[in-house]
């Protein structure tokens, strides 16, 4: 397979360099380095678990966040489809990486090789420890969103079944362009970033930077992290409104949670509708705001939360029960972006369904959610 320079991304990690190609919208790892050194587990064994013996585990920050409610809905739908509702567990990290790692190790100690984990790591830095713990237990892991630069599942380690994400660059770019157009192509904005160690935060901000390069009359006054958190998004926006006042014409946020916090701060300042806002993730409240012309909420993206919960467990379950041997799967089945969904604006928001709707999930074609069509 050959890639053009525009399709090739080099990621350095110490002395290791990983070359990723983006082809058909799929994140493909061409050279991978394992991270589970010292593992005592059998890294190439095909799963032999009986379906009824599998424990399904979904981990994210917490169900007070609407995004994770939808992730949980997708995960529960998969568990129900396999008759494993009684074997499904949701564990909340509450934004604490140490707690999340401890929870996982405890579950592995009790469940062993028939545990399937679909994990949204709180921070990329804890992924190597997760992978090592899973390898040692002989269990099965799918990671979502976050992994350290240069570190993805490899043929040498079948227990880290897959890493799945959504390409954040077009998300950040498309929502930024919608924001800039709503501002008339000129003015100044502030930006709310997610956790800086998170791959989607980095990708989405790159998308914003790409859009800024195309709109010379838009100025980025300042960017700050609000940690994916609604309250922090409100607090940071209030602080920047105090600092910059009427200079701010727009707020670009890397998630809807932070954007909704910003919207509250804007309302508190008496500037609802005067300052435009965009977010990402397709939360129901954000979709409602986009549908309301007076809110100033210009755009978001469609949610992939249900897909990530359901299909992440499906990949792990298939490995645990021997339906697939991850070590023999192609690289684009081990590290990939889900198929992209269009940006949501007032023009199409009426066509977007409930973010927690599980009725369209299809588990018969394991790899159907993988990748996206190349756009000419």
UniProtKB/TrEMBL annotation:
Cross-referenced PROSITE patterns, in alphabetical order?
A: PROKAR_LIPOPROTEIN (PS51257)
Task: Give start and end of each Periplasmic binding protein domain.
Answer: 63-323
The record's GO CC annotations read: cell envelope
Q: Does the keyword Transmembrane apply?
A: no
* Record bears the keyword Signal: yes
Keywords tagged on the record: Signal
Q: Which Pfam families match?
A: Peripla_BP_4 (PF13407)
Q: Name one GO molecular function term.
A: carbohydrate binding
Among PANTHER family, the record links this protein to: D-ALLOSE-BINDING PERIPLASMIC PROTEIN-RELATED
Tell me which family the UniProt entry assigns to this protein.
Belongs to the bacterial solute-binding protein 2 family.
Name this polypeptide is given: Periplasmic binding protein domain-containing protein
Q: What is the lineage of its organism?
A: Bacteria, Bacillati, Actinomycetota, Actinomycetes, Mycobacteriales
């Amino acid at each position: 397979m050959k890639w053009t320079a525009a399709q090739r991304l080099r990621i350095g990690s110490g002395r290791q360099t990983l070359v990723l190609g983006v082809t058909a919208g799929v994140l493909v790892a061409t050279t991978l380095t394992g991270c589970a050194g010292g593992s005592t587990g059998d890294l190439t064994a095909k799963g032999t678990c009986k379906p009824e013996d599998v424990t399904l585990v979904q981990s994210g920050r917490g169900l007070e966040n609407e995004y994770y409610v939808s992730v949980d809905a997708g995960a529960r739908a998969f568990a129900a489809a396999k008759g494993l509702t009684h074997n499904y567990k949701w564990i909340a990290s509450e934004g604490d990486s140490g707690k999340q790692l401890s929870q996982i190790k405890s579950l592995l100690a009790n469940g062993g090789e028939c545990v399937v984990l679909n994990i949204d790591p709180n921070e990329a830095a804890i992924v190597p420890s997760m992978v090592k713990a899973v390898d040692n237990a002989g269990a099965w892991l799918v990671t979502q969103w976050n992994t350290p630069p240069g570190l993805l599942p490899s043929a040498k380690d079948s227990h880290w079944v897959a890493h799945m994400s959504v390409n954040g660059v077009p998300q950040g770019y498309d929502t930024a362009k919608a924001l800039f157009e709503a501002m008339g192509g000129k003015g100044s904005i502030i930006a709310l970033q997610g956790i800086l160690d998170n791959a989607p935060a980095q990708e989405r901000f790159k998308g914003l930077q790409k859009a800024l390069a195309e709109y010379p009359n838009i100025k980025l006054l300042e960017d700050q992290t609000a940690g994916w958190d609604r309250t922090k998004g409100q607090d940071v926006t209030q602080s920047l409104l105090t600092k910059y006042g009427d200079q701010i014409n727009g707020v670009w946020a890397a998630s809807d949670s932070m954007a909704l916090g910003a919207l509250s701060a804007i309302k508190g300042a008496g500037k609802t509708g005067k300052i435009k806002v965009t977010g990402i993730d397709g939360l129901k409240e954000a979709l409602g705001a986009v549908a309301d012309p007076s809110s100033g909420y210009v755009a978001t993206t469609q949610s992939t939360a249900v897909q990530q919960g359901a299909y992440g467990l499906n990949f792990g379950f298939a490995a645990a029960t021997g339906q697939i041997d991850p070590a023999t799967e192609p690289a684009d089945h081990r590290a990939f972006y889900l198929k992209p969904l269009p940006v949501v604006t007032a023009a199409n928001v009426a066509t977007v369904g409930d973010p927690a709707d599980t009725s369209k999930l299809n588990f018969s074609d394991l790899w159907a959610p993988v990748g996206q069509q190349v756009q000419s």
